[in-house]
Request: fold
Amino acid sequence: MFETVISPGGGRVGKLMTRKGEMQTPFFMPDATRASVRGLAVSDIQETGVEALVVNTYHLYLQPGIELMKRIPVQAGSIGDTHAFMGWNGPLLSDSGGYQIYSLIHKHAEMGRITDEGAEFRSVLDGSKHLITPERAIAIQFDLGTDMMVCLDDPRPNDAPKEEIEAAVDRTLRWAQRCRAEFDRQCEMRSFDDMTRPLLFSVVQGGMYVDERQRCAHGLVSIGFDGYGFGGRHVDEEGNFLVDILAETAAAIPENVPRFALGIGTPSDIVRCHALGWDMFDCVIPTREGRHGRLFLWTPEKGVSLNGSDFYRTINIQNEQFKEDFSPVDPTCDCELCRQYTRAYLKHLFKVADPLAGRLASMHNLRFYMRLMKALRGEED
RNA sequence: GGGUAGGUAGCAGAGCGGUCAAAUGCAUCAGACUGUAAAUCUGACGCCCUACGGGCUACGGGGGUUCGAAUCCCUCCCUACCCA
Reply:
């Protein structure tokens, strides 16, 4: 299901089989958290070259709700599921909602609490209480019909005390075991075989402690999954890239399975992680920052190249300096924005708050990411 | 011609004797954003300086009252609406 070779660049290239098709690794998936890549139509996403998306269990569970997701009608030969709902036929990965434990509960205690049973959330929509257990997280993902699933995990802030990190690793391991059991039960119940079942990933926690990352990874590997993720945050509280943690965690995961760096990252983070053995990435950066006016550009003299730390730069198109700049955002880019519009026009679209601004900028940034991934795979641009 | 309400920073609009270089919103200028509570959030926004402090000029113009005025009085100019 997964095979790789080491590329001349040091990272590895390979292919991952999913029931929705084969993915060349390394690859990047934009976040379609609530079953949409904000502001983009499926045709827009496809035009950037994106092949797989990440949706979110917690957010879809709350809205539109799992009962509706289960009733989505069959379309064009597809089973009724998230693919049909959002009109996306490529591979879908669903995140478990584990990160929402971190971003909602750990940062806002009033939003919920964690027990061994699961995570008790307060809905961000209406304040209602919801319990998401490991079993429930997996069952919901089967209802969503996604092709790659993630176990519910327990991420903690990197500056948490070590005892807390250790407890979170213990819990992540216990939850992974329960997720594994529920996953197998669901597969059996639905008569999935190895060709028709989704893939299951678990997530390595352990904060900034190499020994905890290793303990977590080894524990997860002994349970056995189709792939393993890097959880929590890959930078410290000052924003420094945690090289050793990324390297040692990758090393603790077998070579014959894909390694998924959840939530990573900036272009340079992705390049570094790939060199350390990571194969899959997802992040809100290209779309969120695009909507906020930040655009990724290849360094003009170098074109699409990954050499050096300055192979790309960013601009904030809303800055005054672009007011009368009638050149394309990035002359080396082949996206709709760079082919047809000028910097001055895009700045204008942002100033008048036209949704077209966010759309064109998101597409541009995704195109940048896609070309980055191609370069990492050693493919012709 | 008569009456009424007003004239405050780029705009709108608070303040109506000291704690006012002046609330708030918008606009403007920057910054942040890493498994999306984010079309969001943060900062700056009269001028000058040895800048978590100090100086200067300011609330239509001019003149007063007061220890002290954007705030009170006089006068002039202007605006809106109403009546002739």
Notes: Residues 162-189 of chain A form the longest helix (28 residues).
